[in-house]
Amino acid sequence: MKKLKNEAKLLKEAIRAGTEYGEKRGVVKFEATDTQNERIEYIYKLLVHDKVIQPLALGQQSLPNMRHKLALWASRQLPADHPLLK
Q: Which of 30, 49, 64, 66 fits a disulfide with 44 by CB distance 3.0 to 4.6 angstroms?
């Protein structure tokens, strides 16, 4: 698994976009007390359930891999000239 440039910022964008996606579907309302790890796991599972992203292999389902997968998803959602992709 190759680390992305700006992976932390892409993950932050993925959490924002994933939260927005879940709220539009009406399936999630995150509380202020929810941890970032809980949000990451929920967003990952939601996107896999909706077949937006492919699931990780059974032995590879860990929080660092979910973070990376969400960062990849966010990088594909951004326009090609976005500053996070440079």
A: 66
**Would the CA dihedral through 15, 45, 74, 21 be positive or negative?**
negative
Question: What pLDDT, on the 0 to 100 scale, is given for residue 11?
Answer: 96
> In the chain, where does DSSP find H-type helix?
7-25, 36-49, 63-77
- Go through the domains of the chain in sequence order and give each one's CATH number: 7-78 (1.20.120.1930)
What residues have CB less than 8 Å from 6, skipping those under 6 apart?
84, 85
pLDDT tens per residue across span 9-54: 999 999 999 999 999 999 989 999 999 999 999 999 999 999 999 9
Q: Report pTM.
A: 0.91
pLDDT band (50, 70, 90) for residue 82: confident
Structure tokens at 71: 């960062």
Cα 66 off chain centre by: 7
